[in-house]
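Researcher: Here's a chain I'd like modeled. Treat it as a single chain, no partners, no ligands.
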Amino acid sequence: MKRQLPLLLLQPPGSCREFTRSGSCYPPLGLCQLAAMVDESDVFILDADGFQLSKEETIERICEINPIAIGMTLTTYTFDMISEYSKPLCDLGFKIIIGGPQASLDPKGTIEKLPSCDWVFCGEAELQMRERINGIKENDLSGIKGICFEQNGELIISEKVIVENLGEIPFPTFDGLPIEAYWCPDAINRPMLNFMTTRGCPHRCGFCSSPALLGRKLRRWSPGKVVDEIEYLVNKFGIKEFSFVDDVFTIDKNRLNRICELIIEKKLDITWFCNSRADQINEETAILSAKAGCHQMYLGFESGHEKIIKLINKDTTIERLEEGAEILRKAGIGRSIGFVIGLPGENEETIQATIDIVNRVKPERVQFTRWTPLVASPLFDQAKCRDSTFHNGGSDEVSGWISKLYDSVKDKEWGAASW
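Model: Modeled as a single isolated chain. C-alpha cells:
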C-alpha cells in the first residue's frame, strides 16, 4: 500500500511516566511545535504515553496509519527506549528520524548509537519543516539545513538553524492529543498543559546543557501573544492549569509583570507554575504573579553548600537563594526546590549542608536528582561515570545520599516529593 502521510511524530509509551518519580505525563511539546508548522495532511502526532498504549498497540497503530517516516525525540536518558522502537519500526520499512536535545548536541553519537536512524534533525527545525516534509516524500533531505545522515559511509552534517524571532512561528498544536491525561503532582487543577514562552538562557550553570542547545541569548514571544494563546487554549480545550517550562520564566521581570497584568485584565481563570531562580525574585513580581494565578515556582538551589554553588558557576549565594524563597512564601506562592546530587566535590559534609538548608527553608515540594553529565554541559568532561540513571535507584554512594535526603523530609508536613 502506498504511504500517503509523510511524517508521524511519536512519543513512545513511558516517555514521561517512566522518567518521573510520580508517573507524571506531559504533551510532547517539541513535536507539537513541529506539527504546527505544516498542514495536518502532512504530519500526525501519536502520544502513545498519553494514551497509555503498550508497545504492541503503538506499533499496530503506526502500521494502521502507515507513514513514510517516524520522528522521535531523544534525550540523554532515552537512548534505550528510542532504540527499542526505532529498530522494529525500521525493520517494518519506516524511515526513522531522531531529533531533540541529545540529537542536536551530538548528532554523530546519535547516528552511531542508533544505527536504525536514517536522519537526525539538529537545531531548531521549525523554519525548514515544509522543506523537510518535501524531502521525506522524495526520500532525499540532502541540502537542507539542520540534517545529519550517512551517505556512502560518510557522515554528512549540515549547518544548524535557530529561530531568531519566535514571533515568526506559531505556538504548538495540541489537536488530537489526550489533554485530560496530562498532569503532574505540582499542578492543582486539570486539564494541564505545558507552555514555553522563551528560548535561551544566559546563565552558566555547570551541569546544564541548555545554553549550548538553545543559546545564551533570550528569545521571546511577546506578552500579548503569550496571553492571547493562553486565552485560546482555555477556550478551546478548557485548560485550567499551565506549566511554564521556560528555563527561567522569571528572567525578564518587566515581561513577566506584563504577562501577569494581561492575565488579570482578561480575567482568565487559570492557575500556573513555572521555573524560576530564587535570586531573581522580588516582592513586586511575587505578589503580581500570585494575583495572576501562580501557586508555585520551581527553584534550582542545586546544593546547600557554598563550595558546590561556586564550583557549578551558579553565580549566587546561599543567602540570596533563601531570601528569594522567603519572598515567595510571604506572597503565598509554593516553593518546589530542586537539588542536584553527586556533583564534583559532593561529600557527607555537603549533603548535610543540603539537609540543613532544606530544614531552614521548609519548601512545600522538594526534588533530589542525581547529577547526570549532559553532553555540551561545562562539567561534562569532569564526569567519572556517564550513565544516565537520573531518577533510577541503585546501590552506589549517590543513591545512598539521595535516599538519605528523601528520608530527611519524609515525616515533615512540608517537603512533598516533586516530579
